[in-house]
Amino acid sequence: MDPRTLTPALRALRLCLHLLMAGLLALAVVRAWGDGAPDAGAVLAVAAVTGAVYAAGSLLPAVRLTRRAAALWLAALGVSWLVLLWLTPDALWVAFPLYFLQLHLLPARWSLPAAAVTAAAAIGSYVGHGRPLNPGVFIGPLLGAAVAVATVLGYQALYRESERRRRLIEELIATRAELAAAERHAGTLAERERLAREIHDTLAQGLSSIQLLLRAAERTLPAASPAATHIARARQAAQDNLAEARRFVRALSPPDLEHGSLAGALERLCEPGPGPRVRFSLSGTPVELPTPYEVALLRIAQSALANTVRHAGASRAEITLTFMDASVTLDVVDDGRGFRPEAVVASSDAGFGLPAMRSRAQSLGGTFTVESAPGQGAAVAVTLPLHTAGSGSRPDGTLADRTGAHREAS
């Protein structure tokens, strides 16, 4: 494990392990010198070598990064410990830090046998040195191995859980950032659409009416009169500003409609991606639609298709755009699990998808219907009227010119 990633608790545990190893080696040396053992000098030398091997492994990055280096280091440390164990039975206590090192650095299939061999070596050394036998000789090393196994396995379980939660938190943070970006983007698009509607329904229509009224006034005056000249200039200014307002409306339209038709934008919604296979079909003879119509139909299609992907569990869906003599209709049909429309509308958790689609359609004088039942898929249909020139209203929802000269406004 990289020392830079250690928590304060883990740093403290690592320091305790270093102190435990140093203290147990020092204990073996002190006991050998205190008992006046003839090989006390050898015990001191081997203990120093064992401490040096341990310190080298603690400082080498390779031991922490690769299993092979860790195994070689543990083998060298084990050999020096066995030599020390052969010299003095007091070295058996060094088995306790060795348990932790073996269990932490080796894979499970090797660490558990290594800990068992270490415990057996410690017990065998004590017996081989002819020390008096008692239950603690056997219970101590075995109990120490069991405690080490339980401690290391518990730590590893906690570490895995901590890593899982850390990854989950990172995913949540990334998801929140993506959601915030999506909400900002959606808010930007919604504001663009609102501004486009406001400009179209107020400024553009007002300029159109002014232009028509000025043309009507111009016809009542002699062509060469100064008043007619001023009116002509005013009408031209109104016409220029009307064209500029229409350019603003086009620029504020959804990006999907900037460089193509509504049919093209709907067809791009059907490109392969996660979720059901989506097919687009066009029926009837396409006619040019006002920008509010195109925006509303595209947004309704996007919202309906998003609901299909998120909630329907469908394998197929179809978007159909139908042009008729007096109306244009958009249908979005899927073969998903379906639902009860009345239950969704009545639910407090229903969200704003269906009400928003219905509101878009009704704001343009259209109708919005939803047909669905559990297990029978769902069908969303919106129909917008296409008024003719003599019907008293225009496709963009504005009243025909009060002077009867609405044809000249184009």
Automatic annotation (TrEMBL):
<keyword id="KW-0472">Membrane</keyword>
<keyword id="KW-1133">Transmembrane helix</keyword>
<dbReference type="InterPro" id="IPR017205">
    <property type="entry name" value="Sig_transdc_His_kinase_ChrS"/>
</dbReference>
<dbReference type="GO" id="GO:0051539">
    <property type="term" value="F:4 iron, 4 sulfur cluster binding"/>
</dbReference>
<keyword id="KW-0963">Cytoplasm</keyword>
<dbReference type="GO" id="GO:0046983">
    <property type="term" value="F:protein dimerization activity"/>
</dbReference>
<comment type="function">
    <text>Member of the two-component regulatory system NreB/NreC involved in the control of dissimilatory nitrate/nitrite reduction in response to oxygen. NreB functions as a direct oxygen sensor histidine kinase which is autophosphorylated, in the absence of oxygen, probably at the conserved histidine residue, and transfers its phosphate group probably to a conserved aspartate residue of NreC. NreB/NreC activates the expression of the nitrate (narGHJI) and nitrite (nir) reductase operons, as well as the putative nitrate transporter gene narT.</text>
</comment>
<keyword id="KW-0479">Metal-binding</keyword>
<feature type="transmembrane region" description="Helical">
    <location>
        <begin position="40"/>
        <end position="63"/>
    </location>
</feature>
<dbReference type="GO" id="GO:0000155">
    <property type="term" value="F:phosphorelay sensor kinase activity"/>
</dbReference>
<feature type="transmembrane region" description="Helical">
    <location>
        <begin position="108"/>
        <end position="127"/>
    </location>
</feature>
<feature type="domain" description="Histidine kinase">
    <location>
        <begin position="297"/>
        <end position="388"/>
    </location>
</feature>
<keyword id="KW-0418">Kinase</keyword>
<dbReference type="GO" id="GO:0016020">
    <property type="term" value="C:membrane"/>
</dbReference>
<dbReference type="Pfam" id="PF07730">
    <property type="entry name" value="HisKA_3"/>
</dbReference>
<feature type="transmembrane region" description="Helical">
    <location>
        <begin position="12"/>
        <end position="34"/>
    </location>
</feature>
<keyword id="KW-0004">4Fe-4S</keyword>
<keyword id="KW-0902">Two-component regulatory system</keyword>
<keyword id="KW-0408">Iron</keyword>
<dbReference type="InterPro" id="IPR036890">
    <property type="entry name" value="HATPase_C_sf"/>
</dbReference>
<protein>
    <recommendedName>
        <fullName>Oxygen sensor histidine kinase NreB</fullName>
        <ecNumber>2.7.13.3</ecNumber>
    </recommendedName>
</protein>
<dbReference type="InterPro" id="IPR050482">
    <property type="entry name" value="Sensor_HK_TwoCompSys"/>
</dbReference>
<dbReference type="InterPro" id="IPR005467">
    <property type="entry name" value="His_kinase_dom"/>
</dbReference>
<dbReference type="InterPro" id="IPR004358">
    <property type="entry name" value="Sig_transdc_His_kin-like_C"/>
</dbReference>
<dbReference type="InterPro" id="IPR011712">
    <property type="entry name" value="Sig_transdc_His_kin_sub3_dim/P"/>
</dbReference>
<keyword id="KW-0812">Transmembrane</keyword>
<dbReference type="Pfam" id="PF02518">
    <property type="entry name" value="HATPase_c"/>
</dbReference>
<feature type="region of interest" description="Disordered">
    <location>
        <begin position="387"/>
        <end position="410"/>
    </location>
</feature>
<feature type="transmembrane region" description="Helical">
    <location>
        <begin position="139"/>
        <end position="158"/>
    </location>
</feature>
<dbReference type="GO" id="GO:0046872">
    <property type="term" value="F:metal ion binding"/>
</dbReference>
<feature type="transmembrane region" description="Helical">
    <location>
        <begin position="70"/>
        <end position="88"/>
    </location>
</feature>
<keyword id="KW-0808">Transferase</keyword>
<dbReference type="GO" id="GO:0005737">
    <property type="term" value="C:cytoplasm"/>
</dbReference>
<keyword id="KW-0411">Iron-sulfur</keyword>
<dbReference type="InterPro" id="IPR003594">
    <property type="entry name" value="HATPase_dom"/>
</dbReference>
